[in-house]
Amino acid sequence: MERGKKMLKDKKYFLFDIDGTLAVDDGIFAGSRELISYIDRIGGRSFYITNNSTKSRKDYVEKFRRWGICTDETQFMTASYAACQHLKRSYGEKKLFVVGTPSFVEELKDAGLTVTEQAEEDVSCVVVGFDRTLTYEKVEAACELLFRSGMDYVATNPDLRCPVSYGFVPDCGGICEMLKAATGREPYYTGKPDAGIVGMCLGQVDGKKEEALVVGDRLYTDIACGIRAGVETALVYTGEAKKEDLKETNLLPDYVYEDIQGLYEAFVKSRQDREGDWK
To answer: Quick check: 46 and 52 in contact, CB under 8 A?
Structure first.
């Protein structure tokens, strides 16, 4: 499905969500490799704007290598990377308490930030990511800090749940909802749907908005991110969003496909239909 008269054939820069869009767990969806390869062949570039903060950009390069896809770190604009940039600007050398995976903690340290996993007296901000190593001790420490007067609170992404092979598990937004139930506090989110992540991608290639497409499986993060950035969007039904969700939202995508294979086939056809263009 397409809304209005769109120009899919003119897209060069694809900004993909990963979980639920290109892959789930360690399995990659049919059409993902083919679409990414085709984008490379026509002189375009793929970016990966995932809200999953359990992995660093280095981790994702390795994961894509196992899928047979060659990437570099600059292609990954993760929620953890966006958090690092925000925290460096806002807190400098101040101490941050982190609820996150060891990979996320290491990425913050590599960015030059001062982090702790204890409720120390000189903590300036609580930082929460999608934490597959979450313990009740971490939750209690976060609650103690969030009840302190003047304590700041930042989180990587508002996604309530993350798709896995058997369904879903709580994502960063789900963890933050639990903390909200106990403390009444809500964080500032640095990942999608913040439009800045799109600007970081297009800035690398001096790309125009009309040349870009944000592709994802969630309306309130992926599609909202593209809309906020003024970039066209494509929704796939292999993750969280369902067809009936489009009847109850103003976050309408420009294109809708059953899966990434459908987008791949539509994109190839749109370019082949251009006179003299059979790449």
So the answer is: no
